[in-house]
Amino acid sequence: MEVLLSLVVGALVAAAIYLMLSRDLLRFLFGLILISNAANLSIFVSGRLISGAPPLIEKGQDFPVGEVANALPQALVLTAIVIGFGLFAFALVLTLRAYRSLGTLDTDEMRVAEPKDPS
Amino acid sequence: MAAAQDNSLPTSPGQALAGWVSVLISVAFFVGFWQALGPVGNGEVLRWSWEWVPSLGISLSFLIDGLSLSFALLISGIGALVMLYSTKYLAGHKHFARFFLYLTLFMMAMLGLVLSDNLLSLFVFWELTSITSYLLIGFSHTSADSRRSALQALLVTGGGGLALLAGIILIGWVAGTYELSEIRAQGDLIREHGLYLTIFVLFLLGAFTKSAQIPFHFWLPNAMAAPTPVSAYLHSATMVKAGIYLLARMHPTLAETDVWLWTLTIAGSATAVFASFMAVKQTDLKQILAYTTLMALGTLTLFLAADTGYAITAAMTFLIVHSLYKAALFMIAGAVDHSTGTREIDRLGGLARAMPITTAAAALAALSMAGFPPFLGFIGKELKYYGALAVQSEPLLVAGAVLLANALMLVAAGLVAFRPFWRGTHSTPMTPHEAPWQLLAGPVILAVLGALFGINSDLIANTLIKPGVAAISSGELEPVELKLWAGINLPLILSGITITLGIVLLIVHRRMRAFLLAMEARLPSFDRGWDKFLDGMKATAAWQTRILQSGVMRYYLYVIFATLLVAVGGTLIWTGAFTGIPDIQGVQVKHWVVVFLILAGTALTTITNSRIAGIAGLGAVGIGVALIFIIYSAPDVAITQLLVETLIVVLFAVAALRLPMLKPEDGFPNRKLDALFATAIGAVVAAIMITVTTGPINRRLTEYFEQSSWIDAYGRNIVNVILVDFRALDTFGEIAVVAVAGIAAWAILKGPKEDAK
Amino acid sequence: MKSIILTAGARLLVALLLVFSVFMLLRGHNVPGGGFIGGLIGAVGFVVYAIACGTSEAREALRLAPEKIAMAGLGIALFSGFMAFVMADDPFTGQWLFIGATETDKGLPLSSVLVFDIGVYLVVMGAILTLVFALEEEV
């Protein structure tokens, strides 16, 4: 299953990069969400997959019984999801603001800092 | 010029305090080092050590041996005199206290440099001296000339410092330690190592830039833009000798090879001869002194090339002699400037009547510089000839170079210390008057010391010179006795020739200067070359910025992703880590359904031209990923993913109202290439993932968390315990990012509004 | 588009979600839950409320400005980390107090870790609401 999900991550990355290379900022944001999903999934899969055994310690036990899922990548991914959301929300707000100021979502037109002909 | 500054302003009590505290600090240092004279004279080496960065092998360790003690006494002693001098010289200056802060900082850094027993801490102090030197050269920061000179000095010595750092790291790698006392025991190992030449060149770059050897000499005369006490202190007596110190310190480790011998001989003699000609060409007192300092630095380099007792003794002696008379002469130049308002020798003359004490001190110092008996300068010069005749490379060539340089030195001494005081009459901007005692103390004490040490050379021979030579040569070489009269021999005859030649040249000085000026006009100027070099750097920077900073977001992304593709994909192929896609096993129907959901959502988002469809596709992907988390035992992650997915959809739905429709992209021809590019990167990522997941896994950390989650942290949900207990500091950083993102977004939305153009 | 059913439903829903979010927060140390999840649930509750009744009413219901909640949460989390100083431990070392503990029962456990998780809860909820409210007020 790790192999199949590796391929899924590859597909997500390919789609995300294709979208991020678009001139339209909205498509770029779509790509941003896809690539953060891909990143989360890849961390999760790298920790190996175990089904039906969440990393919990049962009442009365001092340690988890038997093999349980890898807790470390889960902790990493959990915060990564929330941070990824913060990043996305911030990018979305920037996009809104840019559209309000510049009147376009075409990134090729957004050249305030580095104008086409420096003068 | 600094001296012409308005001295009518009274120095405030606080400022005066700053000055006197600085003087006291340096006196205290001097007295402290004085205590070490006894043990060091007996051949002891004193050491202190504290751990600084143990993980990198950096310790704050200090050693006092003959070499560092000589330097430390010069630095603190001359420092005290120069600071005393400055209390008067800069009296009433707006930045009086700032000046003393810089000067004291410099003194500390310089002391740290010469006392360090660890190469890395030596480097830190080395850079600190460069920085304080920058601040002091640019002290008159309103003058463009000062600023340019300061920056030039900083860039040249700073560049050399970088080379030195590389050399230090290499030597630490070869020797396995950064402690100097351990490195010097491994001289043979380092000399025979394949990296010796690289280390040698890097250290030389550091030393030559700092000590202004050709071709890096041009910054030193420009550094005379600094106030005169700074020139006396940093740019003649102490800082510029840091390079010499480094060469001496590394002598046991790096010397005794042909490349060392020849490089130092050629660079040293070229610098010495070139600088002496330049010196007699100048008309500004400080410029003459600056070039004679260059000459002295060249001579010192020359002697450190060899490893004979004569040469090293000559180097140690000349080092002390030069610091004494040069600091004195600089301070005298400042006093003359202070008193008359000019430093142009053509406008100065007959000052002896008005400034008798200054005249006497100048005469003493200049006689030592010119190498007349019975001054220490004479002994130094004799030893130079002994040393020159004993060098292994080309004794006659070296002796010739030294002879020429010494004769010209005599001319320079005459120009600086006799012409302004004796010949002719003056026509100076201010009526000359004797300098106040603070300006006189330094030159008088130093000049008298020069005579005293010459008459009774035992005063320094056993306490400083002998231990110094032992430190430079690892105790292998016997130092030579310092004697005023050693019988009639070749060095004495050479001395006679020097003095005769010097006096003749002094007489024909004007004609010689005209000739030198004509010569110089034909030679390329290093200073102008430097400007061209800087212009070239700026042009290159502008050129590459235009290429890299295109201002089009897609191009930045292309660069980033192409780097990923080449660097990571290339490594994957190069190392052969990826061995192909293994069989897909253990996949049930529910798994296929989830994978299909994710892929379908991805495809929809990628190809659609409808905002709503795109958002729906994203939602499908998010839910698919959440399902994977559920299937593979990650309830916390799955819940978080679902909640975030909900919020993303809400946010998009709200924002989309304000954003324009998606435009079809069929019109863009490069989208097909983009697709190819993106697919390639996706393939590389998939290959990495397969390589990682089919390889071994280290669960050490996870096992630790599993074992201690309940026992130590009283939590049964291991994921939550990691977040709020084991890695709480990380989590704190992460929630801080979330908070900042929220508030920044709020600020952007609520901030000042500008409407679309 | 205010509808009475939606408004009334949203009031009920936000109350339920808030209670649920605190429940998730408190149980998080031993079973799935915790500050991140609790904060997200709380935020979703108020987002629903804002969509149904408008942001001004949602702000009133929240009483405190959301950016202040986020900052307070950050302060609480930092404070919990410094509690370790009282016991001369490294910062962010968990400190525990078992009220009414017996041989067999641990009693009511209070800990700096729980305080930290409350901080996380407040930051996540506050930051998200800051953003969402601002965005909705823009449109």
From TrEMBL, chain A:
Gene3D superfamilies per UniProt: 1.10.287.3510
One cellular-component annotation, GO: plasma membrane
Q: How does it sit in the membrane?
A: Multi-pass membrane protein
Name a Pfam family for this protein. Oxidored_q2
Q: Which domain of life is it from?
A: Bacteria
- Location within or outside the cell: Cell membrane
Keywords (alphabetical) are: Cell membrane, Membrane, Transmembrane, Transmembrane helix
Q: Coiled-coil ranges per the record?
A: none
Does this UniProt record's set of keywords contain Glycoprotein? no
**What residues form the membrane-spanning segments?**
6-21, 28-51, 71-94
Under InterPro entries, the record lists: CPA3_antiporter_subunitC, NUOK/Mnh_C1-like
User: PANTHER family under this entry?
Assistant: ANTIPORTER SUBUNIT MNHC2-RELATED (PTHR34583)
Q: Which family does it belong to?
A: Belongs to the CPA3 antiporters (TC 2.A.63) subunit C family.
| The protein's name in its UniProt record | Na(+)/H(+) antiporter subunit C
- UniProt gene name: mrpC_2
From TrEMBL, chain B:
Stretches of the chain forming a coiled coil according to its record: none
> Is Cell division found in the keyword set?
no
Q: Where do the NADH:quinone oxidoreductase/Mrp antiporter transmembrane domain residues begin and end? A: 116-401
GO MF, one annotated term: antiporter activity
Q: Which Pfam families does the record associate with it?
A: MbhD (PF13244), MbhE (PF20501), Proton_antipo_M (PF00361), Proton_antipo_N (PF00662)
Domain named MrpA C-terminal/MbhD: residues: 597-660
Its membrane topology is listed as: Multi-pass membrane protein
Entry's localization field: Cell membrane; Membrane
Every copy of the MrpA C-terminal/MbhE domain together lies at: 671-750
Q: What is this protein's function per UniProt?
A: NDH-1 shuttles electrons from NADH, via FMN and iron-sulfur (Fe-S) centers, to quinones in the respiratory chain. The immediate electron acceptor for the enzyme in this species is believed to be ubiquinone. Couples the redox reaction to proton translocation (for every two electrons transferred, four hydrogen ions are translocated across the cytoplasmic membrane), and thus conserves the redox energy in a proton gradient.
Protein name, as recorded: Na(+)/H(+) antiporter subunit A
Gene of origin?
mrpA_2
UniProtKB/TrEMBL annotation, chain C:
Q: Where in the cell is it found?
A: Cell membrane
> Among its keywords, does the record have Transmembrane?
yes
GO CC list? plasma membrane
Origin superkingdom: Bacteria
Give the transmembrane ranges: 12-29, 35-57, 69-88, 108-135
Residues forming the Na+/H+ antiporter MnhB subunit-related protein domain are 5-130
Which key words are in the record?
Cell membrane, Membrane, Transmembrane, Transmembrane helix
Record bears the keyword Transit peptide: no
Membrane-topology annotation of the record: Multi-pass membrane protein
Signal peptide interval:
none
A Pfam family in this protein?
Answer: MnhB
Question: Where does the protein principally reside?
Answer: membrane
User: What is the similarity comment for this entry?
Assistant: Belongs to the CPA3 antiporters (TC 2.A.63) subunit B family.
Q: Any idea what this protein is called?
A: Na(+)/H(+) antiporter subunit B
The source organism is Boseongicola aestuarii
